[in-house]
Specification:
Elements lengths: L30 H13 L5 E17 L2 E19 L2 E7 L4 H17 L24 H4 L3 H17 L3 E17 L4 E16 L6 E8 L7 H14 L9 E7 L1 H12 L4 H5 L25 E3 L21 E5 L2 E2 L6 H7 L9 E3 L6 H6 L3 E15 L4 E14 L2 E5 L3 E5 L1 H6 L1 E4 L3 E2 L12 E3 L2 E11 L4
Parallel strand pairs: 7-12, 11-18
Antiparallel strand pairs: 1-2, 1-4, 2-3, 4-5, 5-6, 7-19, 8-9, 8-11, 9-10, 12-13, 13-14, 13-15, 15-19, 16-19, 17-18
Helix pairs in contact: 4-5
GO molecular function, one term: metallopeptidase activity
Protein name: TldD protein
Pfam families: PmbA_TldD_1st, PmbA_TldD_2nd, PmbA_TldD_3rd
Amino acid sequence: MSAFHDAGAPRSLFTDANASSNSAPARYLSRADCEAIARKVLSYSTADEARVTISSGVSGNTRFAVNQVSTAGDTYDAVVTMRSVFGKRAASATTNKLDDASLRAVVQRAEALARLAPEDPEALPELGPQQYRATEAGWSEATATLDPAGRANAVKAVTEPSRGANLTSTGYLETNAGAFAIANSKGLFAYRRQTSSSMTTTVRTPDGTGSGWAGASHHDWTKIDAGALGARAIDKAKRSVNPVAIEPGRYTVVLEPTAVANLVQLIAGSLGARNADEGRSFFSKPGGGTKIGMKVVDERVTLSSDPFDPETPGAPFTFDGTPVGANTWIDKGVVKNLAYDRYWAQKQGVAPSSVSGLRMSGGTATLEEMIASTQRGLLVTRLWYIRGVDPRTILFTGLTRDGTFLIENGKITRAVKNLRWNESPIFMLNNLEMMGVPVRVSASEDGSPGQAIVVPPVKARDFNFTSLSDAV
């Protein structure tokens, strides 16, 4: 069954290669459809080498504010990108029209641009056929079939309790379901389908001084409990009214899992081997080389990624078709591996590797136990407005937000005003005192699903707060 029609006609994206024309609304292109489109596009190519990528699917979102849905929308699309190569010159062009004329035109545009492009001294030839491990780890029918009514019911589970408590809730719910395929002129073909979903909410008190947040992200929508998120945000909002100012400085912190993920995911973005080899990274060793084999954080910390992990699924291949496997980046505090793209891997004589999802080891302590063991410190719900300061130490700055509380003599005593922090996840992971059970969290600042990440709550000493913020 073909998924493309004449130019200007409505386009149908079928979820099943054997689906009939009377099927329910389509969501994404099947493997067979992608293979057919790829064959057609590549047949138009006159370049030395060519690669086509095909991304298709549906994205749905519902926003709510003042305890009611404010906007909602669903978008369907299929995008074809052609990369043409002449020698060491390459360029790409993109279209979302799947008729023959448009596909031929995108090939011609890519080839014209490629002939004008400067030579790339680091250009590599396209890969030949690869072996890919089959996986459905990142797919959920519950997410793929969640409709606007289902999203509205989830929002209602937050807005009605908030209204009943005389509080104001806002938030964002997003779901995605789609497929990605890659093919090239050397016979490579890879296909993957994936889903993702996230829901976040911020609840405010009538006087505007109290604010509570809760969020979750998962490829399986059934793993997100909207009512529980609302209840948690409502509780934090009530407890955070009339915050007091405290002196900036170094504090013992109890970081909830979202705050931990906000920091720890920054390590994943710093694992590039080339930066380390060239002396531009925390993972660069003084005097040359990298820190592979060196202890850099507490021995209780292990960071790993596995695209086939059902809790942290990721892409099993990169955008050039390189297979992605499981990797341990930090093992019991020691750097074990860095991430190598194809060019740098070939130059260094190692296998390519990349981060796809992230999991951090944990312990058995509960948040309550961490708080009870703290003489004086801060409980932090999440971190926000995170910006880089120094890549050589993975130092970042940002703000606490939506639930920051003072701990005194093992108890939460009052809400405090938000604080600006300057801290590195490396420093934090060297100052660990306790860790809890790892959980899947929503760690993106914008409320979108973000990368799959599983981390524990932690207690750490000497977290650096540099100034106060009057923002709620």
